């Protein structure tokens, strides 16, 4: 029985998740974490490839992205499977899909027709380039969206090829914006009774977080390029070497820089004309970073951190997974939760976010172990079919 306090704000909302891999399923994960009942449709026999994705000895990514979900196996290429999906859509609040545009239409599952069955249905369509435009029919993955949206052009060292983020950020952003669109559409439906289609593309989702990149080029005549670990003109704000690792310090504001100087035992630097103002520090960024790096390199990460905390300088360790599992702040905020899995034992993973004070979400269910394990349950409860 789910704790009613942690049932989540979307309790009672029914979601159908089509598609596979990351963008569509992550959108479903977000809605499920907030209390929605998410029915994941998988192809019989094959299932979602995410079941076998992940790094290390055991593929456990599925345990994160498929939590709080029910698995129903349907062959959407067959008339029977298509009809069952239409019946389920008639009872659903939200349907998520991340196929190439035109795929649902090819399977006789056009969202326009589904909304005729259920006018209140909200259909979230996640794709590489969107449902319209000259590129709509192209295949698109997260990395392609990152490239077109401007992300890859500015990530990495200036003398090397563009770098990737290290995670599938394009997919995750598209999923997040798709989820945002679904929630906005739910509010509109509460006022009008009508659902709608949410069109979330990978490249536009990346574009949304590109700050002032476009107007800087068009108006300020500045084209952002790859600058490694620094933001040109913003100093000090970099990762600095310690005797046992690296440490991030952000002290580019005047008063904060003065506190950093005191922490270093170099209070006079705050009055030095080369470093006393934001503009001056930006002009002498390389030499200032070298000066700070010379100080940090003689200390451990713990020693530098203690000095930064004492003097109120924004700074932080470079965390990896081990650091997160050992950190008291992560534990205190339940940023990481641990699920007991029958095959893997304890499985720690990121918790539910954002945190709501009155109706917090939760991880209520492990990821489905078998493809279609919830067919009978869902078809009985949603459609009244006998076992």
How far the N terminus sits from the C terminus, by CA atoms, comes to 23 Å
> Could you say how many structural domains there are in total?
2
CATH topology of the largest domain: Rossmann fold
Q: Approximately how much beta-strand content do the residues carry?
A: 5-15%
How many extended strands? 11
If you average the pLDDT, what whole number results? Answer: 96
Oligomeric form? single chain
Secondary structure tally, helices: 16
**In this structure, how is the largest beta sheet organized?**
6 strands, parallel
* CATH architecture designation of the largest domain: 3-Layer(aba) Sandwich
Order of helices and strands: EHEHEHEHHEHHEHHEEHHHHEHHEEH
CA radius of gyration: 25 Å
So what's the CATH class of the largest domain? Alpha Beta
Which regions have little confidence, pLDDT < 50, spanning 5+ residues? Answer: none
For this structure, what is the CATH homologous superfamily of the largest domain?
A: Crotonobetainyl-coa:carnitine coa-transferase, domain 1
Given the C-alpha coordinates, what overall shape results?
A: elongated
GO molecular function, one term: CoA-transferase activity
Keywords: Transferase
Protein name: Formyl-CoA transferase
InterPro entries: CoA-transferase_III_domain, CoA-Trfase_fam_III, CoA-Trfase_III_dom3_sf, CoA-Trfase_III_dom_1_sf
């Amino acid at each position: 029985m789910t704790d009613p306090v942690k049932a989540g704000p979307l309790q009672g909302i029914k979601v159908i998740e089509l598609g596979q891999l990351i963008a569509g399923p992550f959108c479903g994960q977000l809605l499920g974490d907030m209390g929605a009942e998410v029915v994941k449709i998988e192809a019989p026999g094959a299932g979602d490839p995410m079941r076998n994705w992940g790094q290390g000895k055991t593929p456990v990514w599925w345990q994160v992205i498929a939590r709080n979900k029910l698995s129903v196996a349907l062959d959407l290429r067959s008339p029977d499977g298509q009809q069952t999906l239409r019946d389920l859509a008639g009872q659903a609040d939200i349907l998520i899909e991340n196929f190439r545009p035109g795929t649902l239409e090819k399977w006789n599952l056009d969202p326009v027709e589904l909304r005729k069955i259920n006018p209140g249905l909200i259909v979230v369509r996640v794709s590489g380039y969107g449902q319209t435009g000259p590129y709509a029919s192209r295949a698109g993955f997260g990395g392609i969206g990152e490239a077109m949206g401007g992300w890859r052009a500015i990530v990495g060292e200036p003398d090397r090829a563009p770098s990737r983020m290290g995670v599938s950020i394009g997919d995750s952003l598209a999923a997040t914006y798709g989820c945002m669109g679904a929630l906005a559409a739910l509010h509109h439906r509460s006022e009008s009774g009508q659902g709608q289609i949410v069109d979330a593309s990978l490249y536009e989702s990346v574009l949304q977080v590109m700050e002032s990149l476009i107007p800087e080029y068009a108006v300020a005549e500045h084209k952002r390029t790859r600058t490694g670990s620094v933001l040109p003109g913003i100093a000090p704000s970099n990762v600095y070497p310690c005797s046992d690792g690296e440490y991030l310090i952000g002290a580019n504001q005047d008063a904060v820089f003065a506190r950093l100087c005191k922490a270093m035992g170099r209070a006079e630097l705050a009055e030095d004309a080369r470093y006393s103002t934001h503009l001056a520090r930006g002009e002498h960024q390389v030499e200032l970073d070298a000066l700070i790096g010379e100080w940090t390199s003689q200390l451990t990460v713990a020693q530098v951190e203690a000095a930064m905390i004492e003097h109120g300088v924004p700074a932080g360790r470079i965390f990896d997974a081990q650091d997160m599992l050992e950190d008291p702040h992560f534990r205190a905020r339940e940023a990481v939760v641990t699920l007991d899995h029958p095959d893997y034992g304890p499985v720690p993973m990121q918790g539910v976010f954002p945190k709501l004070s009155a109706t917090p979400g939760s991880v209520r269910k492990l990821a489905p172990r078998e493809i279609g394990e919830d067919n009978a349950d869902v078809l009985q409860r949603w459609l009244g079919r006998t076992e």
